[in-house]
Write a structure and sequence with these properties.
The chain has 260 residues and is of the alpha/beta class. It has helices spanning 40-52, 65-72, 102-115, 140-153, 176-184, 204-212, 235-246, and strands at 16-20, 57-60, 78-81, 86-88, 121-125, 128-132, 158-162, 166-171, 193-198, 216-220, 230-232. It has a 7-stranded mixed beta sheet, sandwiched between helices. The chain has a 4-stranded antiparallel beta sheet with strand order 5-6-8-7, with helices on one face. Helix 1 packs parallel to helix 7 (235-246) and helix 5 runs parallel beside helix 6. The N and C termini lie far apart (43 Å). Mean pLDDT is 88; it is low at 249-260.
């Protein structure tokens, strides 16, 4: 799909619901997921946006909710983690968690053993298995082979998603679009127009969902074909765009706003 790269004009006034991927969208990628950090400025911006949208802001991420909370602490937002296999529907609400199935655990053990000592990171996220090859791009093909072989040994209901610097194995119901649709049925999202920013293959389903709802789909640093209708050059530009369109007044927020 053709995408528009000029997002300089501000969005028109309206009732917006904002959905945000994290890695590659709000934060630069790192060789290891735990190597990233969140600035106080980003926390303040997100808190301000949440207030300006009357709460209609949610993370839609492949990270677990626990990992996101640790990263953004003390900020707590509505969130769909593990591509929608985990949810927290209110900032201080109960987490609907997802466990690692026994069949997935056994295959993860084998893959970890195969890749031990290599510059890749095998991340076990309950029912989602991710192999990060950003520090060893030459091993992406081998990682993909291992995950596809694992898929053949699992019962029906799983799929493989290849990303920019890694590959993941996950249940079919793990879909960012489904997570967005769930939020859009609930207050304070219901009746608003959705906006979704993402950067990777796993975000495409979310772009399609937002497009179908008449919303705004934006891919950060797009590579190849995408369902997104708009593009932003990089993480810094994405944050600047959020500030310009949703975060007016964030610079006036005090650090005390983030005290739990």
């Amino acid at each position: 799909m053709n995408i528009q790269t000029d997002l300089t004009p501000r969005l028109s006034d309206g009732r917006w619901a904002l959905f945000l991927d994290i890695d590659g969208t709000l934060l630069e990628h790192a060789a290891h997921p735990d190597s990233v950090s969140v600035s106080d400025g980003l926390r303040l911006l997100l808190r301000t946006i949440e207030r300006r949208l009357d709460g209609a802001l949610a993370f839609i991420t492949g990270r677990s909710i626990a990992a996101v909370d640790g990263l953004f602490d003390p900020l707590r937002l509505r969130i769909a983690g593990l591509y929608g296999l985990e949810h927290r529907l209110t900032p201080n609400g109960q987490i609907e968690a997802a466990d690692e199935p026994a069949d997935m655990a056994a295959l993860a053990d084998e893959i970890e053993l195969e890749l031990a000592g290599k510059a890749v990171y095998v991340e076990r996220k309950g029912p989602v298995l991710a192999i990060h090859t950003r520090a060893a791009p030459h091993l992406l093909a081998r990682a993909t082979e291992l995950v596809e072989a694992a898929l053949a040994r699992l019962p029906e209901g799983y799929r493989v998603i290849a990303g920019n610097a890694g590959v993941e194995l996950m249940p079919l119901e793990a879909a960012k679009g489904a997570a967005i649709r769930r939020f859009m049925q609930l207050d304070p999202f219901s009746g608003r127009r959705p906006v979704f920013l993402g950067d990777d293959t796993s975000d495409e389903n979310g772009f399609e969902t937002v497009n179908a709802a008449g919303g705004i789909s934006i891919r950060v640093k797009p590579q190849g074909e995408t369902a997104a209708r708009f593009a932003i050059a990089d993480v810094a530009s994405a944050i600047a765009w959020l500030e310009a369109n949703f975060g007016g007044g964030a610079e006036q927020a005090s650090r005390g706003d983030l005290v739990a």
